[in-house]
Amino acid sequence: MRTQVCIIGGGPSGLLLSQLLHRAGIDTVVVEQRTRDYVLSRIRAGVLERGLCNLLRKAGVGERMDREGLVHDGTLIAAAGRQFRISFKDRVNDSVVVYGQTEVTRDLYAARDAMGGLVIHEAEGVTLHGVDTDHPHVTYRKDGTEHRIDCDWIAGCDGFHGVSRKTIPDTVRTEHEKVYPFGWLGILSETPPVNHELIYANHARGFALCSMRNPALSRYYVQTPLDDTVEAWSDDRFWDELRRRIPAESAEALVTGPSIEKSIAPLRSFICEPMRWGRLFLVGDAAHIVPPTGAKGLNLAASDVHYLHLALEAFYLHNAPGEVDLYSERALARVWKASRFSWWMTSTLHRFPDQTDFDQRLQEAELAYLEQSEAAQTALAENYVGLPY
Ligand code: APR
Ligand code: PHB
Fold first, then answer.
1. What domains, with CATH codes, occur in the chain?
2. Residue 46: nearest ligand to its CA?
3. Is 257 a residue whose pLDDT tops 90?
4. Alpha-carbon distance 379 to 375, whole Å?
5. Mind listing the pLDDT tens digit for each residue in 46-72?
6. What is the pLDDT of residues 192-225, one digit of tens each?
7. How far is the CA of 211 from the centre of ligand 2 (A)?
8. Which of the ligands is closest to the CA of residue 32?
9. pTM for the structure as a whole
10. Residue 292 bears catalytic tag
11. What is the spatial distance between Cα 47 and Cα 140, in angstroms, rounded to a whole number?
12. What φ, ψ does residue 351 adopt, rounded to 5°?
């Protein structure tokens, strides 16, 4: 088989890139190791920046998001028993859309099907060849048969544990990592959200977050030690701890119910440089991971896709082959800024194991300053709604 761009990974990055390139007349094949059902079973955050919303609309995939997505003009921050609101609308005249990543992925798959886009599932042993030549190819096994895809370019959209990043030689690749000494225990419950906007809560017992998927499906998190387990957390224990970490006015309004999903996720910051080697580009989680505190994971995948699809269109359609040489630098500039913001949100809102009471008071002072300062709120708002592409 031959294609112009072979895309490794059928998550949001790979599907959005494939859809945008296909609509521009550029041929792609997506090679995904899992089944579609498995990909769609993943529970992931869904706070969409304007840039991602516009990209989905450009890809012809924005209709259900525009119909069902929840527009959020602000967020609540809680500390020292109080909560205050930061208005994205007042500070930066912008907003975000809350729409689950699973739904984004579902819409992308539907669009791929509608255009007859080729997504190969259950591809085993995907291997990249000749990446440092002008004629790369990809091999994989399916149903016991070895397959080969010759292509001009390979987009590594295969996530943090994928094969693409590791194809870049150690002598070329630099990996920057910061592992946080705690995790997030998250639950889904078929209950109305405690507030129509999100609540990010700092507390001496640890961070908590009140979020949602829709008006009847809530998503809550509490920070847990790294060695904690889901089995140690009954629903009752979770609800009691969440109530202790959010201000009384919200704790009293909390509607609880049985969890329909419960899991613990670690937090890390990770960035691979460069995001391009030869004919291979890294996109999304394959290149970078951010702690979920700033809700930037999916949104950084989107800005990578934005830069790359324009570079490939320039290469194929506008006789401007030099644009692909600027992809890595452009993408990384935004990745580092979003990683800084995610690190700042994580450092200001979480309780660190070695943290002293003085440290806790410094965090509370930072949040008290945020409450009173329009300048500080504007800085948070412009990062949260998404820096320009
Ligand atoms: N071969 C083929 N496919 C692979 C391989 C491989 N060797 N390794 C991983 N994959 C697939 C995974 O099964 C997954 O479906 O690549 C896809 C990568 O998808 P994501 O991990 O969702 O990464 P990405 O598409 O960049 O989306 C980033 O997803 O993980 C969240 O928080 C993250 O919101 C962010 C978004
Ligand atoms: C979520 O709804 O899962 C969510 C929202 C905002 C975040 C992280 C997770 O910052």
1. 5-71+97-177+268-345 (3.50.50.60), 178-267+351-384 (3.30.9.10)
2. 2
3. yes
4. 6
5. 899 999 999 999 999 999 999 999 999
6. 999 999 999 999 999 999 999 999 999 999 999 9
7. 6
8. 1
9. 0.97
10. yes
11. 34
12. -95, 120
